[in-house]
Amino acid sequence: MVNIGIVGATGMVGRNFLKIMEERNFPVNKLYLFASSKSKGKTINFKNKEYIVEELKEDSFDKPIDIALFSAGGNISKKFAPIAKEKGIVVIDNSSAWRMEEWVPLIVPEVNPEAINKHKGIISNPNCSTIQSVIPLKPLDDEYGLKRVVFSTYQSVSGSGIGGLKDLEKGLNKPFHEKYPHPIAFNVIPHIDDFLDNGYTKEEIKMIEETKKILENNDIKITATTVRVPVKYGHAVSANIELKKDFELKDIFKLLENFPGIEVLDDPTNNIYPMPIMAEGKDKVYVGRIRRDFSLENGLNIWIVADNIRKGAATNTIQIAELLLKNRRL
Length: 330
Ligand code: 2RA
Known about the structure:
The chain is of the alpha/beta class. The chain folds into two domains: 2-125 and 313-326, Rossmann fold (3-Layer(aba) Sandwich); 129-307, Dihydrodipicolinate Reductase, domain 2. It has helices at residues 12-23, 74-86, 128-144, 162-171, 202-215, 249-257, 276-279, 310-326; strands at residues 2-7, 28-35, 43-46, 49-55, 67-70, 90-93, 122-124, 146-155, 221-228, 235-243, 262-264, 285-293, 299-306. The strands form two sheets. Strands 3-4-2-1-5-6-7 form a seven-stranded mixed β-sheet, with helices on both faces. The chain has a six-stranded mixed β-sheet with strand order 9-8-10-13-12-11. 3-amino-D-alanine binds next to helix 3. Residues 127-129, 155, 159-160, 192, 203 line the site of 3-amino-D-alanine. Its EC number is 1.2.1.11. Residues 3-119 form the Semialdehyde dehydrogenase NAD-binding domain.
């Protein structure tokens, strides 16, 4: 049994931490919920017991916490994760604050579970669109070698939290935008996170750099275009892949079907392919539209869909916590 602290407990991902720990019967002993001052005093139910939300402060981590799950933005993680770490607490952080630090493992349990043994007190949960993409890429890299990957993403508004959902819902009846620079209803916006001087967005650079770190393969040539679409839950990713070796398509199917966490949905004659409406609320990564790219030597196209709040954030985090217990790395 372990004592759990949740930072950002009232947010969408924070609440899903609790839901998924209940579903997976994660062995929680004591539970401490932290959020901003505006949520102080709220109560949240976990396993039929009401817990009071406390305001996050520096002394929050004086409590007997074993693992702290963070989902409260990069600034909160930058300030408070080191404080928790100094108290001997293991932090699993959902923000991008620590992901590219050399000493911080970036973990997708189906892909690089062994990285858990390198942690020094802070572990980063990858970006949602990265998590769902590296899962099918891992067996392909191991078997054929990845030469180049072109990502095009179709990301739901829940990736932006409550504000994204609000822009979509309110925009259905009249032009409306508050969270996004333009209306998202009946539109797509090729702009997720801030633009950089090189013309990419931070979201695109996350996909590129995080994929290389998780696969431990800096030689892969990767580019990405990340796009917000008017969908509530579930990110979709088109991956155009150049492998180093030739392949038989039937072998690709078998490889993906047998990899943990993947469900292959690919029967175009019966209109069977992954879609966000089927991934919502689930933890699988759905792969389909698997086909050779005839414009390339050893070219392959795949289509990847997953629930960005569950497998893309909360479930992956709880799986990392389970890995900590299994490997006794607390
Ligand atoms: C998004 N991946 O979809 C980013 C952060 N969740 O907005």
